[in-house]
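re: the backbone from monday

yeah here it is again, tokenized this time
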């Protein structure tokens, strides 16, 4: 499960994919970028991108001190998958292209679409816990890894 051989001389890369790239994958990407302090390359995309990031996701992340207001949903491309060491899917099923040699994880998370910030907070918190675990797996333990 380790990707040590792919990180020689470069940062590991993680791609988060959900259907609309408007909630779960945006929150996960923002957490990974923030908590890894730039030590992991972060991408996110959607198989059917929405027009804008879910306002409840934006508000929930602002409560954590992370601003995702400038983010926009992006379309999933085969190139993005090829460029990533780890691909984390969140409800996009078989719409994500598969390439051998990549680490794939499917995170089963409730879809925040159409929900208020009160309902998005528990999803956000679950994503944060999974991101902290992912960071511990991708970065060497040197006493300076991510902090809560």
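seq for it, each position gets an aa:
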């Amino acid at each position: 499960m380790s990707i040590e051989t792919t990180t020689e001389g470069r940062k590991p890369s993680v791609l988060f994919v959900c259907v609309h790239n408007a909630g779960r994958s945006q929150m996960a990407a923002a957490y990974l970028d923030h908590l890894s302090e730039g030590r992991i390359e972060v991408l996110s995309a959607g198989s059917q991108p929405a027009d804008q990031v879910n306002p409840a996701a934006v508000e929930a992340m602002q409560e954590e001190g992370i601003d995702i207001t400038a983010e926009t949903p992006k379309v999933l491309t085969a190139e993005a998958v090829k460029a990533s060491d780890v691909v984390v899917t969140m409800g996009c099923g078989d719409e994500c292209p598969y390439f051998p040699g990549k680490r794939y994880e499917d995170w089963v998370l409730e879809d925040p679409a159409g929900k208020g910030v009160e309902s998005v907070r528990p999803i956000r918190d679950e994503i944060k816990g999974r991101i902290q675990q992912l960071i511990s797996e991708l970065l060497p333990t040197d006493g300076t890894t991510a902090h809560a």
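The longest helix spans residues 117-138. Helices lie at 24-35, 55-62, 78-82, 117-138.
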